[in-house]
Design a protein that fits this description.
binds flavin-adenine dinucleotide; single chain; alpha/beta; 41% helix; FAD/NAD(P)-binding domain
Length: 319
């Protein structure tokens, strides 16, 4: 049956580290698993010969939460750099201060005209139903701005279309300008700084992961463990390397679509077992020909496929 732990944590990124910090603070000793052979998830840093350190994606700490600022500062022994942020966007030969919706100055005149005209129409439209991020972008900025900037950028950044995204993550990330702010930014390059990142901190040594690496010391971290099955009934974790871990509680920071895929796979396995046990013997007793059985099976599979797609959409996108 493998080993047993009280609390298992899946993932060593910032979310997994948050769980380690909280649980170890309560006196628990979680066992932490990650499929990667390195610690830190998306916030990992890699040292190269010659003394250079590269982060997996550009990461900085711009939180204004004092508890977190203190925690990160302690984790790097107070050794961090403090930087004032100046953030620009590049679009087809134009540099635009961030956020672009308030800094249209210098863009082609007909584009700016269409952006402002659509922005005004969107602001004056009767409130519609916001089903996803795409609806939100169109309703907030108007069609031309939405389709020229955030929808194009978002497909690359989020690796999916805005129609597949909810809006609960927006917080202060997407600035909602007034008409005055849009007009001022279209007529002048001098605009107030309204971006939510105005300054940030970054560890002086070892890359961004230095902020979270000390959390690893508060747990039993097992890298190279890719979860392939989570069995909530038996309370067991199964890993690709053959390891099995029984747990009392599990905290997962694995992206929800991936986790749901494991569970759906499990569902399909139980469906097949039920089919073998109940349906197939009945068809045999009823004397169904091979062709009739194949047709029935095809109908069941089509229905199962549809149900899985509907469940996946409901669970992941809540639509
Ligand atoms: C380019 C870029 C720049 C960003 N810049 C910033 C920034 O400047 N500041 C900021 O605060 N945030 C930034 N973010 C957001 C930040 O990276 C994420 O919010 C954060 O890293 C998410 O942490 P997480 O723990 O949820 O996920 P992850 O870091 O992805 O951790 C999930 C972990 O689960 C593991 N895992 C997945 N599947 C399995 C499996 N089957 N079995 C075992 N382990 C598994 C993965 O290997 C990974 O280690 C940026 C994101 C990107 C993409």
């Amino acid at each position: 049956m493998g080993q047993k732990t009280g609390v298992a944590i899946l993932g060593t990124g910032m979310a997994g580290c948050g769980a380690i910090h909280r649980l170890s603070g309560e006196g628990l000793e979680p066992v932490v698993f990650d499929k990667a052979t390195y610690f830190g998830g998306h916030t990992a840093s890699f040292a190269h010969e010659g003394g250079y350190v590269f982060d997996e994606g550009g990461h900085v700490s711009f939180t204004k939460n004092e508890r977190l600022m203190d925690l990160f500062a302690r984790n790097v022994g107070g050794e961090f750099e403090f930087v004032h942020a100046s953030i620009n966007n590049y679009w087809r030969g134009h540099w635009m201060k961030h956020p672009p919706q308030c800094n249209l100055y210098g863009l082609p005149a007909d584009l700016v005209t269409r952006i402002i005209s659509d922005f005004v129409s969107a602001q004056n439209a009767a409130p519609g139903v916001i089903r996803n991020y795409r609806d939100w972008l169109l309703a907030t900025y108007g069609r031309t701005f939405a389709e020229t900037f955030p929808i194009v950028y978002g497909r690359r950044y989020h690796t999916t279309g805005p129609e597949n995204m909810a809006t609960d993550w927006l917080g202060p990330r997407m600035y909602r300008p007034s008409l005055q702010e849009v007009l001022r930014g279209a007529l002048s390059p001098e605009t107030p700084d309204v971006h939510y990142v105005t300054e940030f901190r970054y560890p002086s040594h070892g890359g961004f992961v230095s902020y979270i690496r000390p959390f690893a010391q508060a747990a039993d971290v097992r890298l190279g463990h890719q979860l392939v099955r989570l069995d909530p009934r038996e309370r067991r974790l199964h890993f690709a390397n053959g390891a099995v871990m029984a747990y009392e509680q599990v905290v997962s920071s694995i992206a929800l679509p991936a986790l749901i895929r494991f569970q759906l796979r499990q569902l399909v396995r139980s469906e097949l077992a039920a089919f073998d046990q109940h349906v197939y013997p009945r068809w045999r007793d009823e004397g169904l020909s091979q062709e009739q059985q194949a047709a029935q099976l095809e109908a069941i599979l089509t229905l199962t496929d549809t149900l899985i797609s509907v469940m996946h959409r409901k669970l992941v996108y809540q639509v």
